[in-house]
Amino acid sequence: MKFRTLLSLCAAGSLSLLTACASTEPAQDTSDYDPLEPVNRVVHGVNGAVDFMVLYPAAMWYRDIAPEPVKTSVASFVRNINEPLNSFNALLQGDPDQAAASFQRFIMNSTLGFLGFNDVASDFGIPYRREDFGQTLAHYGIGGGPYIVLPLLGPSNLRDTAGIGVDYVANPLTWGAQNSDTAEALYLGSVGLTALHYRYATINQLNELQKSSIDYYAALRSLYRQQRNQMIRNGGPSPEFAVEDESASFDFDDAVEAASQ
Amino acid sequence: MVNSKIAISTAAMIAIAAAWSGPASATGLSSNVVAEVAAETSAANVIQSMADQAMNELTDQSLADDVRRKKFVSLMDRYFAMDVVSRFVLGRYWRSISEAEIEEFSVLLQNYLALNYANQFKEFNGEQFVVGDETQKNKDTFVDSQFVRPDGPPVNIVWRMRMFDDSYKIIDVSIEGLSMGITQRDEFTSVIQQNNDDVGALTAALKAKTGL
């Protein structure tokens, strides 16, 4: 319980920090700032080994054994279990409409959709959108900071790692798991299914990337940054970047100019 | 791996990038001719004719792998501004090598991309390629398109194009918001940095990979 108190204090702390340094522009990361690269590469290697031994075989088995309707239901369940957090973060980002939509999805899918295994809300025209605390921080202008490869969880950065911590504390299921065996079983089950689902969903892409790339670590790092930027913008068009590092400063205009010389 | 939700990899990027069209290619010769004529005035038409050409030339399953790769390379020659792309993916490092070395790199890059992605055209089955709207933003024209799969949601692809000598050339491809050019640049510049800023190390790695 003490650990939890500590965690919630941290969450409260980051929230007050948030308001302190709030800016109106969502933060978009332009470079792969990676001062911990040697350590990150080691963790990346260990993750790869664990993945090879545990997650990858499980995902392959799941891919070959599970019928398509089962996979669809699992994908829907994994998203539904996240909806309270999506709603919470949408609210923090000053988007009450999206917060209401996520909450509505959660209620509809948990009841009509049988614990979220059926995504009836999408059929009613309320699409899914993921909002996590990392995105909330970015919404208030906080940049990604150094790239971090987390044990088991993989690519992240300082901001998004803090976000994972806050989301963990804010998740009603993690609180429920303290007091109820049913909630604990549901929580643990959802963690397992989430891991399995995401690994399955990325099997082909990651296999191809690993096969084709010269530096798999660097390619993954770039894709993580781009994908987070995409999620922070909620799919909107990319802004023209303010230039931060030398490599990012070389844009298409420079390349065109260089080619015409 | 919860967080490594990479929506679509570079692999898928070019596979789709070189692209292909379902219904349009079935309409036959006349639509191709029309597309060729209109190509000079519309970026979307350039994408459409590239898709038609890729569909006609690359999806034949009996084609030998190296022949398919060569056809892929010549498609890139025709539709991509390869000199711009080559300099872009080298980042600031293109300045540290000679013109001849950039030429060599450009050839290696094309063959590397062809090696990784040309064979994906063998496996096409039931997917469709639909070209959408154009948007102008600063100097570039962005062409939206969708890759519609029989199983799973459609994949959004955006082509970044620029006018060179009165014709549109592709300078970047984004799949679900992930830029192929930026991903490749980040990876390549990382390889160069890991080797004491020596571009030769990247060239050597590409040679080893492509067998050139």
Automatic annotation (TrEMBL), chain B:
Can the keyword GTP-binding be found in this entry's annotation? no
Name the species this protein comes from.
Thalassospira indica
Superkingdom, according to UniProt?
A: Bacteria
What the entry lists under InterPro entries is as follows: MlaC/ttg2D (IPR008869), Tgt2/MlaC_sf (IPR042245)
Q: Would you tell me the protein name for this molecule?
A: ABC transporter substrate-binding protein
Q: Where is the signal peptide?
A: 1-26
Please name the Pfam families in this protein's record: MlaC (PF05494)
Q: Which PANTHER family match?
A: INTERMEMBRANE PHOSPHOLIPID TRANSPORT SYSTEM BINDING PROTEIN MLAC
Record bears the keyword Signal: yes
Which keywords does the record carry? Signal
Q: Matching Gene3D superfamilies, A to Z?
A: Tgt2/MlaC (3.10.450.710)
